[in-house]
């Protein structure tokens, strides 16, 4: 269904300097608003030739009681935890959940949105694919008035609510912990540089270094595409360097496990020779030897908050104005970094 | 939508001693069939007051190009591998995939089917919840002519195609391997007894014992509800027994890992004192110490075969007659059982 530009509530709100939620309530003739405000909104809507989106309205009125979820991948423990949180919350509130996986593909993400919207879901919870750099599909969804929010992999370019974890602070905590254990030369193995989490975690890593008097110029950042082969290659490279690192912070746990295997193969003692930490708290991390220091991301909690907020918006308990929820991470120090017990 | 009993193609087929596929083709006036057969089917259909299901027909004609998938849980590596296999295959053939999770709940499974059918998926791939003991919802789906097949957690009560792995043979392989390593007293820790995989894996375990001259009376079977606490409790119980086992075959890898942690806590050497093996090949199993001997279930392959078969049925390349695909498992012997290197 292609169509020309339709005036959105957002545009009316912008012209009047009001929130989208106020415009929405004014057009619904909400008794909470001052009659003058309502009149102002209605007149502006008329002058801009605003046409309420009937599809969106009918969606809101006759509910399917189904939420759609789009995640980049399902094999990741983090995203499957998100989904569990979303689903448990949705069920408690009488909703079902349909899930699509974008497989980290931008094209697939667009088609996921299309089929979920065609299935008349009441709202969507979206975590973006690694490839998504253009947000027109999300803008279209927004302009059609279909309620959605974003979680974990988000963009700030669309004015909808977002739920994320405090990546920078998590990376700060783990780097600081390594420095407090007496490590002087902490390396950071990052994922692809354009990933939001790569940027945020590097930010936290650098912040901790600076606090311990280490400049960015003295930092040791390695970039991996996160494939097993590359991860292991970088670990070998670090081992061969003359001025070798005495600690490694790997951006995600699976990367840390690959590094651990290489260190052990080469007879490097962990943490005595090189301390090692990851990020995510995958189930594997607590059972490897030595057990891996990592950062807990509250995946289940994140799903719960995202689902509750979207349902609150649908039930008009929460305003449609975008909110940003940033969840705290927690450091779990385990044997891979604990030098002094 | 409740309705009275509708005569199905299956019932017509049964009366005539023909396959459902033949009846279906006869009612479609397929040129492949002998005119006499077609006449026989059409007359029987009339006499039984058969009414073709228009919804199902319209589904088959105007395709949504979406497959629905129902799995018990998404946090399991095995099911997320199934989904990857299904999805990759579907995409290659121009289909999208929508996924629902039953959370091991029978009630949820029924509502999953309802919303996917309401979304007009072209067909369904279903893996049953642990709770599902009644199959009326599947029978209804079958009677409505909505194409579906089952994978991994299946029932033989509904005449649709099934894709499973050879659980009994996998368990036989791993038990035989333990006995070949010189173990004399192999314990089997099973999941709940009414689970299909518990039954099949026990069957394979007993078969191997018998081959080595050990009777069922001499077998050592322990039952766990698969919760961490119970798993660890059973491991402790085995350690305390006077005539202690010298090998443990745990029904699934996460159970084996729980057992491993207890053995290590108690200073039991693996495999020297007690050899240990699991089943599934979770990612964790290769990185624990000692690395865990296990059985590979081809989860991705299973999803691929299931999706291809369903799409072949939709495209009328494969017959609608139920087929059973049983996939081979592969033993991976690792350090947790290899006594002689």
From TrEMBL, chains A, B:
Keywords: DNA-binding, Transcription, Transcription regulation. Residues 7-61 form the HTH lacI-type domain. Pfam families: LacI (PF00356), Peripla_BP_3 (PF13377). PROSITE patterns: HTH_LACI_2. Transmembrane segments: none annotated. GO terms for molecular function: DNA-binding transcription factor activity; transcription cis-regulatory region binding. PANTHER family: HTH-TYPE TRANSCRIPTIONAL REGULATOR GALS, LACI-RELATED TRANSCRIPTIONAL REPRESSOR. This is Transcriptional regulator, LacI family.
